[in-house]
């Protein structure tokens, strides 16, 4: 086993569960999730296949929990070669975290942002830091608009935390919060790649996977149809995937030792373009600056 470690958030379901198993072939996997029992099951699954895994409990919607988890990971002193920010939610009704902030924005953007910023000073030069994002941030993305998305609706980090999105958004419940939070992930990657050239910051659009638990709020019939009928067929359909196929591609990007940074990969692992807005350096720097300013309002 090479002397390397990979940190992954959301290893208890969907893309993350499969990717954690792939990563275990390359080194020790640090499993970061909110549910201790599920983390333990994931650890046992990896160990049963001869891999090594260390669970770390972390609720990404809770900044205190995020800071503790990052500190615990630093304490472990493992030779971290890659960090995968994979965990995410797409709730179909508005919710709030303990600070009263929009739950999707807090879980998908603010938590992973704090997690990454806390780890960064402790990461060795060349470490890969990858975010699993989503092409629904782009208002020009055909399959996303056909599904009812209207792209990211960013006003400011503060407005997003309040659950306010630019008018004219989607009629799909939860879509504006989700698309905006995922655009903030991509903006973070592009800005961090410029700010910290000693590390690699890259993003992945994994493809649409009907069989994961992301749509856990959908009705039971739709969930069963997605998991057992659509998911096995998904890799045959353009822009679609399933956890097995996506995990191989995600692990390939995370274990890649090339110097490429600031790259946005599609579901086949090829470079792609995001929205015109997210590629504007002034915009992605503004997202990062506003996120930091918002987070400074919360006592550490
Ligand atoms: N599925 C798609 O079509 C699709 C497309 C593009 C991008 N993505 C992105 O892919 C990533 C993975 O999604 P998925 O489809 O694999 O969904 P999933 O099956 O629901 O997995 C999500 C993971 O995130 C974890 N998680 C949720 N809330 C958390 C919190 N507060 N703290 C810590 N962990 C938390 C979940 O933990 P529990 O097991 O405890 O719930 C689970 O391990 C997400 O970032 C999503 O936005 C998905």
Task: Describe the protein's architecture and organization.
Strand 1, helix 1 and strand 2 (28-33) form a beta-alpha-beta unit. This protein has a seven-stranded parallel beta sheet with strand order 3-2-1-4-5-6-7, with helices on both faces. Helix 3 packs parallel to helix 4 (103-119). It has helices spanning 14-23, 36-48, 63-76, 103-119, 142-146, 157-161, 175-195, 220-233, 243-255, 276-279, 281-296; strands at 5-9, 28-33, 53-57, 80-85, 128-132, 200-204, 264-265. It is built from eleven helices and seven strands. The protein has 300 residues and is an alpha/beta fold. The longest helix is centred in the middle third of the chain and has 21 residues, at 175-195. It has one domain (5-296): NAD(P)-binding Rossmann-like Domain (Rossmann fold). 51% of the residues are buried. NADP nicotinamide-adenine-dinucleotide phosphate binds next to helix 1.
Distance between the termini: 37 Å
| Name given to the CATH homologous superfamily | NAD(P)-binding Rossmann-like Domain
- Strand order within the widest sheet? 3-2-1-4-5-6-7
The number of helical segments is 11
Oligomer: single chain
Which class do the helix and strand fractions yield?
alpha/beta
> Would you identify the CATH architecture?
3-Layer(aba) Sandwich
Helix content range of the residues, please?
A: 40-55%
CATH fold annotation: Rossmann fold
Average pLDDT confidence is 96
Q: What is the string of SSEs from the N terminus onward? A: EHEHEHEHEHHHEHHEHH
Rg, Å, rounded:
18 Å
GO molecular function: oxidoreductase activity
Organism: Actinacidiphila yanglinensis
Keywords: Oxidoreductase
Family: Belongs to the short-chain dehydrogenases/reductases (SDR) family.
